[in-house]
Specification:
heterodimer; A: globular; B: alpha+beta; Jelly Rolls; Arc Repressor Mutant, subunit A; 50% helix
């Protein structure tokens, strides 16, 4: 199974160096979406999430896609 | 002679050791020893309960399972409790949740039929098991409230503390998948939360393995549910002495 790496774009400081083995790109997108939702829920007092995104990269650190927090349907 | 010394290894389970010797003697001939492995499913939702498990160590999670397969923690059981006692109290019961072994360990077990007979025969067994069952229901309510109201970080601290109490060790083998299921968050979110606790010097964290460094610090960051659950469990046993 391919390994995907998740990091946060903008002012949130996180880079998962271990990554996660997931069956598909769709599974990686679902993990990224869930992560964005979790992070918004963890900081309910924060109002402005514009510019924040979960970035998904592959083994060579190529950017596969970004999931902006504001496009998760929760924000 | 106390039930504990008569009970031998069965008495490592606190419910069994809290029984009066005469009551324990009713169950004793039917108790069997066993060992469960991490990840083993002891009961599945809706299936008939065949065995009642009394852990001597280790830890079992009771999970609520949603239609899509997602599961979330509703309670954990260690040597202070049992899995499946409602089968003896109400008769013919089916499991209300999935019971999964989280920390491997030893247990005593008795068949549901023999347990039911013992409950009918002895008021002492019936009273203690009812009290335990009632307490477990209040703990499930507590966890439901906790899942809805408390932050994932505070719940993670509660989880680490209660697992530590069950395993009686500061080094916990907990997989990522498991913690993410217990807390109802993504695996990457677990990494973020654990890393935060590590930065504070409370734990050392590697994938699949967590070492607790500052128990008091975790207690301060855990939600109230950790202490509440501890008190409720103790009340099962303090009442049995009176």
């Amino acid at each position: 199974m391919p390994r995907y790496y998740f990091s946060l774009v903008n002012d949130l400081n996180f880079d998962d160096v271990d990554g996660l083995e997931l069956p598909s790109l769709a599974a990686a997108r679902s993990e990224a979406l869930g992560l964005a939702r979790d992070l918004m829920r963890l900081q309910p007092e924060r109002r402005d999430w514009s510019g924040c995104a979960v970035r998904v990269t592959d083994n060579e650190r190529n950017v596969l896609f970004d999931v902006p927090f504001l496009e998760t349907g929760d924000g | 002679m106390t039930a504990q010394s008569e009970a031998g290894s069965h008495g490592q389970n606190r419910l069994l050791s809290a029984l009066q010797p005469a009551d324990f003697a009713i169950l004793a001939p039917n108790l069997k020893d066993g060992r469960f492995k991490q990840g083993a499913v002891l009961q599945e939702v809706g299936e008939p309960i065949k065995l009642i498990y009394f852990p001597k160590n280790g830890m079992i999670s009771l999970l609520a399972v949603m239609e899509g397969g997602h599961a979330v923690e509703t309670a954990t059981v260690g040597r202070e409790g049992a899995v499946g006692v409602m089968a003896g109290l109400w008769g013919g019961s089916r499991a209300t949740g999935r019971a999964v072994v989280q920390l491997e360990g030893d247990y005593s077990s008795v068949s549901a039929t023999q347990f039911r007979d013992a409950v009918v025969q002895s008021r002492g067994i019936r009273d203690l098991m009812s009290r335990y069952n009632d307490t477990q229901i209040t703990l499930v309510y507590q966890v439901a409230g906790c899942n809805a109201l408390h932050q994932a970080s505070a719940r993670l601290c509660r989880w680490l503390l209660q697992t530590r109490d069950r395993s009686e060790s500061d080094t916990l083998s907990l997989t990522h998948e498991f913690l993410s299921e217990m807390l109802g968050v993504q695996r990457t979110t677990v990494t973020i939360l654990a890393r935060e606790l590590q930065t504070l010097g409370l734990i050392n964290y590697r994938r699949g393995r967590i070492e607790i460094r500052e128990r008091r610090g975790l207690e301060r960051r855990a939600c109230e549910c950790y202490e509440t659950a501890r008190r409720r469990i103790e009340s099962v046993f303090s009442e049995s002495l009176s």
